[in-house]
Amino acid sequence: MNRTYPVRFIVFCLLLLAPLAARAEPLTDDTIRSFIDSMKTFQSMEGEFEGLTEELESQNNDMQMPDMSRIFSTSVEQMKGHEAHRRMEDVVQEHGFDSTDSWARAGDRIFHAWTSIEMGRHSGMMGEEMSQAMDQINNNPNMSEAQKEQMRKMMGGAMSAMEQASNAPEADKQAIRPYMHELRAVTKADQ
Length: 191
Fold this sequence. Notes:
The structure is a single chain. This protein has helices at about 5-20, 30-45, 50-60, 70-80, 85-95, 100-140, 145-165, 170-175, 180-190. It is mostly helical and about 190 residues long. Residues about 1-5 and about 10-25 have low confidence and may be disordered. It has one domain. The chain is globular.
């Protein structure tokens, strides 16, 4: 058997997988600024999206924790086919994004990094609160074992979501740090 075959095969496989292993492009100031500005535009158009928001909320009433690392991408996927999606496409292109998908990917990264920073600031308190809540569930004499198990699963989902939200890439966190005040402001106005 030719000994170079395995080496060539390994090199070939590595070359094929290289794009998958490559990190996403860095978040730039322009991307972050454009995303924040687009969010401000969407806030000014809130009335145009009101019916869609209610429709999407009714579709997502399954009590599952959303994937916080894909919150914008998931929303855009759900919007496709609605008239509001076409309007959204216009807005994100006005702010320099190629499509709602590229806008959503940027938003996912920005908010994942922002959430990670915020959670890092409050991690000790949140961990203690989760632990206390779990103790209350386990020691509640008024709950059946089945109810306790259901609550443990829900708490496990919340803890998993917290862990997932706190693991943003350091480069993304560093990129958004100068914009923390604006991100807080835009999310407060959004609530």
